Amino acid sequence: MAPWTRAGAIAHRLCAVAVALSAYAGIAGAQHRGPAAPPAAASPTPVVPPGTHALTAEDLETFLDGFMPLQIGRDDIAGAVVSVVKDGRVLFEKGYGYANVAAKRQVSPDSTLFRPGSISKLFTWTAVMQQAELGKLDLDRDVNDYLDFKIPASFGKPITLRDLMTHRPGFEEADKDLAVDTASQLRPIGEYLRTHIPAQIFAPGTVPAYSNYGATLAAYIVERASGQPFDEYVVQHILGPLQMMHSTFRQPLPPALAPLMSRGYDLASGDSLPFELIEVAPAGSMSTSADDIAHFMIAQLGDGTYGAGRILQPATLAAMHVRQSGWPDAMHAFALGFYEESQNGHRIIGHGGDTQAFHSDLHLILDANVGFFVSYNSIGRDDVSPRTTLFDAFMDRYFRAPGPAAPTLSTAAADARTVAGVYEASRRSETNILSALIMLSEVTLSFDPKDSTLLSVDEKGLNGQPVHYREVAPMRFASAEGHEELAFTTDATGRRIAYTTFPFDIYQQVDRRLNRKTFNELLLGICLGIIALTLLGWPIGAMVRKHFGRPLALAPSVRRHRLIARAVSLGIALFVAALAVLVNKLNSLSGLGAAGDAELHALQVLGVLCVLGAVVVAYTVRMSWRDRTWWVWARAWDVMLTASCLGFAWFIIHWHLLNFNLQY
Asked: What is the pLDDT of residues 310-326, one digit of tens each?
């Protein structure tokens, strides 16, 4: 997800083309329309605002049959599935494209399984609410009271289940062992949780920072409260009552469901990816069909039932949907597990989900009693999220925003100047070996004097230009190209805070210049450039001297310094090459794999030697300046090389690359 998640005007463009191509159904799988549960009482015919289409099965079919084939073809996506529920029944379901490109197996909304990723968490949070409803769990009690190990109270304040459900336990990002390569490597979640406790970088209940570990911790608490393994609990208490017969958290898939699983792809034109094995299963391992998810949406939008099955009492369900405190009033907040994503004047709660191959969204439009689910089995090639594009087009077609946009305020210029700066995401690694990735989450906001707006230089619009945000309320800015907003405040220390459209993290102003990406990129560029030129010039200089018969005449102390400096430079080059290999491995969901710790420790030993070597080089460089027979430019280069070795040593120490505690 981009630092400031954007929908972009592509939604409107594709929507218009979709209407024009509405007669074209494209490559479509099986379709199901009609009641999947006993029909609810007919609601009055709504008044449809001008320019808005009535939400009917017929109009949805026209709209989506034009939109979806165009989108998946344009973005090189293999397949997708959409389900829409309204007033307690399935209004529309359809699959598009292929579940298996090579076999030309089409997507079916009834039986094809997709991986909804973090939408799985909604089932975990539902399980927590069930146990709270039974009186077995208290959302505001210390989670350590329910565990057989202890989560340290680093800030002198306990973590509660409410903190976990709103992603405010204070944990830093935890990436290690989120997924594994083989089923034999999967461990019980209790064992994983006990050995992978992330550091707390925020006081519990204060700063939202999305946490897969926190969701898995909540599921383990459900296990202990109920006395059942989590996947069995979900089958008995959620999937069974909702008649979700094509859904499971189990990995590998049960034999009866395995043939129904869609293949996953980066691009439809490429090879399929293996079935992903998620260690933090309650946070993202679910496999399900669109029709099954429709049952869940119906229960959540109604009174907690689907047919004769019940998952929650109405009062508990209502409490689950209540906005929680801690976010600015004008911005989206978390409910209990769901996050707000209101749009076009309608209150919407939902959740997104991603694995390496599958990308999904679930939206509940509460005031319209409408649920919308979409899942793609490929990431595709578009810079703009296909699911965001689709839902924006859906909302603009059926729930058009009322009234004109808010005018720009007279305080826009002064406020934009005040909040301009460099920001970093709260969802980050801060104390472990991945802390340097903080720089990748940086967002730079600058003041544009031409129109008194904030310019997000890290976010590009469809025209390839940076996106502008204009002030529409005191210290609240809206994008001119989408539905994204920014709201600014300060924390207790006076640090500037930016809340975005999505409430699962915030952006905090980077006050220390040594932590900024620009400084670090410049530092690394200069240091590694000088080191590389030194190593390149070493053999070239030797060959030139040999050609002209000019031996290197140096004092023994200078010769010793020169040899040490080049040995350290070579060590740094080896460190960078090895680090690049390991970072490339981290790009896969399973990370470094079973041998990762040994590889990282070997890299860190080399790093320690480089740091010690840099200190020795700094000590011996003074010898080169004492030898007045040595060319002054050579002595100056030695000083620059020494500074480069020390600069690189600072970088790997500052960003915790030599942290031998391999929790990351």
From this structure: 999 999 999 999 999 99
